Amino acid sequence: MKICLRFVGDPVYQQGIGQELGVSQATVSRTVGRVVNNIVAQSNDWIKFATTNHELMEAKRIWQSMYKCSTAIGVIDCTHI
Question: Quick one: pLDDT at residue 80?
Answer without folding.
Answer: 52
